Amino acid sequence: MSKKLTIYVQNVIYCCNFANHFLFWPIRNMIATEQYIREAFEYYNKLIFSNSLPLIPIKLSRAKSFLGQLTYKRKVSLFGKTQYTDFCLRINCKVDLAKDELDDTIIHEMIHYYIAYNKIADTSTHGVQFRRLMNAINKKYSRHITITHHGTQEQNDQLRDKKAKWHVVAVVKMKDGKTGIKVIPRVVERIVYYYNNVSRSPEVDSVRLYLVLHPYFNQFPNSDKLNVVYVEPDKLVEPLANARQLIYKDGHIQYLKSAQ
Ligand SMILES: [Zn+2]
């Protein structure tokens, strides 16, 4: 075994966390600023997490795909030791939110941070441990943190890019059962580079490549960085329904012959 077998997999935890729970149309008057997020982080760190979370870089995002997002790098050594580094909290500054919605989004990401920082094993991105913490916080602090990915019509319209585009998508099955996806530039060399490197990672079980025309994939970063975005597998069924599977064979990318 060579060291090439160990790669960084950047776990972009992908969190829409669209609030979908209010019965009244709330007064929307909060556009996130860096200072506000930092102060909220410090406030809730003290209130909820006993000041146990070191402050991490905070970035404003104008992404079309999420309200909040925690990113970090996870490195697994050949001996199975896991390290987490480069935590970053991103909050969308494009969507006008009620203060409670913005705060719920920040706390939602802080729960992800708490779980990763303390290396708590969970069943999935929003698994048993996440829900347990979220429910306890909602109850104790009268919050309305959710894991729903449905937004209000207005929020979705503010964010979503709905035009169907052609994408090359890698569906990466991890050995721990998770499913990751990656949108790769439509250039043969870059597809091959991604496929070869990620296939060799000790964390990876299989990599499948697809050519697909669907707006679902617009929300994911398009690059050949050796990372994945974790998704729930059932979210891919409809977007991949008419995709054509590609295979890498003898140095070429070609269509899988069997008809779908
Ligand atoms: Zn989340």
Task: Describe it.
The chain folds into 2 domains: 3-159, no CATH class; 166-255, no CATH class. The chain is 25% helix and 27% strand. The protein has helices spanning 34-47, 99-117, 128-141, 153-159, 188-199; strands spanning 8-15, 58-61, 68-76, 82-92, 166-174, 179-184, 204-213, 228-231, 244-249, 252-255. A 10-stranded mixed sheet has the order 2-4-3-1-8-6-5-7-9-10. α1 (34-47) packs across α2 (99-117) and α2 crosses α3 (128-141). The model is unreliable at 1-10 and 16-27 (pLDDT under 50). The structure holds zinc ion. The site of zinc ion has 7 residues, from β1 and α2.
Give the SSE layout:
Blueprint (H helix, E strand, L loop, with lengths): L7 E8 L18 H14 L10 E4 L6 E9 L5 E11 L6 H19 L10 H14 L11 H7 L6 E9 L4 E6 L3 H12 L4 E10 L14 E4 L12 E6 L2 E4 L5
Parallel strand pairs: 1-8, 2-4
Antiparallel strand pairs: 1-3, 3-4, 5-6, 5-7, 6-8, 7-9, 9-10
The structure holds zinc ion.
What is the tally of beta strands? 10
Poorly predicted tracts of residues? 1-10, 16-27
What is the molecular shape? globular
Q: In this structure, how is the largest beta sheet organized?
A: 10 strands, mixed
- Strand % is 25-35%
The sequence of SSEs as H and E is: EHEEEHHHEEHEEEE
Note the total helix count.
5
Query: How would you state the average pLDDT, rounded?
Result: 81
Number of domains: 2
**Chemical compounds bound to the protein:** zinc ion
Distance between the termini: 37 Å
Quick description:
By secondary structure, this protein is of the alpha+beta class. The chain has five helices and ten strands, in the order E-H-E-E-E-H-H-H-E-E-H-E-E-E-E. Bound molecules: zinc ion (ZN).
